[in-house]
Amino acid sequence: MSVNIHPSWKKELKEEFEKPYFKQLTEFVREEYAQHTCYPKGNEIFSAFDHCPFDSTKVVIIGQDPYHGPGQANGLCFSVKEGVPHPPSLINIFKEIQADLSVPYPKSGNLERWADQGVLLLNATLTVRAHQAGSHQGKGWEIFTDAVIRKLSARESPMVFLLWGGFAKKKTKLIDAKRHHILTSGHPSPLSANRGYWFGNRHFSQCNKILRGLNNKIVDW
């Protein structure tokens, strides 16, 4: 796995790529992709970064793991490829946007359109073995993505972090809350959403209100 990532991120994360853990992680990922079916495709592992350069990032959404079913994952958290049926969490995200912003439910579950507007859709673990959720956790990806969050937190211009569910909320400790805006809620998965921890959080209108206050272009969700 050569680190083929947007030049702005390559510059910011240069030190991470040279650390021993990242070299071990690269070796692990290379072997996994050689021996098993893994997602996303090799050239899409860093898609979230390629669609959202470091200096353009104004919103960060943190997921846990890529989808592990065939043809779903495209390197952006919660996003699926064009024409793929929407997974349950994504359905609930779109339902909340529909209720919050009075916009129609979208046909496409491909969230590259958000990323291209400055929304970093960051999974904590960037790869997974087919049909085995969490199979690439604890191999070094989390160290890398925590470093990404710290880099963004250290940036001068304020951003909005959307932390959904217990896993994402644990990343609060990596973020300078004095500088940045953090919105938290339950996870959009059916388990959490059906218990009343997701719907009605109005994160999308709140996020745009914050961006407007920062004289930043709002996100067309």
UniProtKB/TrEMBL annotation:
Pfam families: UDG. One of its GO terms (cellular component) is cytoplasm. The active site is at D65 (proton acceptor). Its EC number is 3.2.2.27. The keyword DNA-binding does not apply. Keywords: Cytoplasm, DNA damage, DNA repair, Hydrolase. Excises uracil residues from the DNA which can arise as a result of misincorporation of dUMP residues by DNA polymerase or due to deamination of cytosine. PANTHER family: URACIL-DNA GLYCOSYLASE (PTHR11264). This is Uracil-DNA glycosylase. It comes from Maribacter cobaltidurans. The lineage of its organism: Bacteria, Pseudomonadati, Bacteroidota, Flavobacteriia, Flavobacteriales.
